[in-house]
Specification:
124 residues, mainly beta, seven-stranded mixed β-sheet
Amino acid sequence: QVQLVESGGGLVQAGGSLRLSCAASGRTFSRNAMGWFRQAPGKERDFVASISASGASTYYADFVKGRFTISRDNAKNTVYLQMNSLKPEDTAVYYCAGVVRTWMVTTASEYDYWGQGTQVTVSA
């Protein structure tokens, strides 16, 4: 079973940047599409970005387009989320997730495995 460990969260001022990493165990990483989600206190878990198994295709939620970039390094079994121009409303726990298919998925319920999450806090 694939396990995911996120890192890179923290406290940043508005306008700043953070890079989240998600390291995966297991041999199937390169055949799985990956995604990032976030959940703010009292709110539902929202889709942020997804990337195909090869890394050739990406898809973003409208509220992060132009600010966030998802990427992956299959040789390192790692997926990244580069977050620029951060806003206070980006404050949330960010989760990495994987799905046993090659194409991108935007629905949380379709993902097969999840990380524990990493806190991102953006101060005004």
